[in-house]
């Protein structure tokens, strides 16, 4: 990994207390990332890259969060950050189909989540088209251990759909307090470690589930192009 990317990630994520295990970096780093705590957003500063590789001045997401919460009262809101680019958005509900809710930000990128589990993205490029979760969301939201087979489908640069099958082991972890926007709760950490049949590729998703089975925050892999997304419910 190039040094400038490491610097960008440090600026974007150090204040969050996150240690991301990037794709292909090995189980040790994935374990560190999965066990990290996401700290309060008030301490976070996100740096974005400007033209010709020069860093733009750090941007504090509290401004976007506070403005959006003030201007759109009483509706569900969710903070989303893309690890690769440090880009973030405060998103609101765009639509719902059964248990799947689609969230949209000002940049018009959307993420679709089934009870908090990522199932699709649009507008990022090389998007995640769909996920067959094999029962993973049921185990995670009910805080149960188990093993499932998940199938991810992506759209490549030639507008072709590609498929990735993974075996995912789900394990309950410790309980942590979560304070985010108007949400203040205790949540159980659920870890989902997925790998291909050959074991050559793996990643770990981490979910925080409250007493009611609601996913209040998560770190989820979306695709090779998109990387990992951080989700945090604000309301």
UniProtKB/TrEMBL annotation:
Entry keyword Signal: yes
Signal peptide: 1-24
Keyword Repeat: no
SUPFAM superfamilies in the cross-refs: YmcC-like (SSF159270)
Origin: domain of life: Bacteria
Xref: InterPro entries: GfcB, YmcC_sf
Record key words, sorted: Signal
Protein name: Lipoprotein
């Amino acid at each position: 990994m190039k040094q400038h990317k490491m610097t960008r990630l440090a600026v974007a994520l150090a204040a969050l207390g996150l240690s991301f295990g990037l794709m292909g970096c090995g189980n040790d780093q994935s374990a560190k990332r999965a066990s990290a705590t996401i700290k309060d957003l008030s301490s976070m500063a996100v740096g974005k890259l400007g033209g010709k590789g020069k860093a733009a001045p750090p941007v504090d997401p509290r401004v976007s969060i506070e403005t959006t919460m003030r201007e759109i009262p009483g509706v569900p809101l969710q903070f989303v950050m893309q690890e690769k680019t440090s880009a973030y958005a405060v998103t609101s509900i765009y639509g719902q189909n059964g248990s799947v809710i689609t969230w949209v930000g000002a940049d018009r990128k959307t993420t679709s989540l089934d009870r908090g589990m990522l199932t699709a993205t649009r507008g990022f490029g090389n998007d995640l088209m769909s996920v067959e979760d094999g029962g993973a969301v049921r185990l995670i939201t009910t805080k149960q251990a188990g093993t499932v087979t998940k199938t991810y489908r992506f759209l490549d640069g030639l507008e072709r759909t590609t498929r990735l099958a993974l075996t995912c082991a789900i394990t309950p972890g410790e309980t942590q307090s979560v304070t985010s926007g108007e949400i203040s709760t205790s949540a159980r950490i659920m870890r989902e470690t997925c790998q291909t049949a050959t074991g050559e590729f793996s990643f770990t998703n981490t979910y925080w589930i409250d007493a009611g089975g609601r996913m209040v925050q998560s770190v989820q892999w979306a695709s090779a192009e998109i990387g990992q997304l951080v989700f945090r419910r604000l309301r």
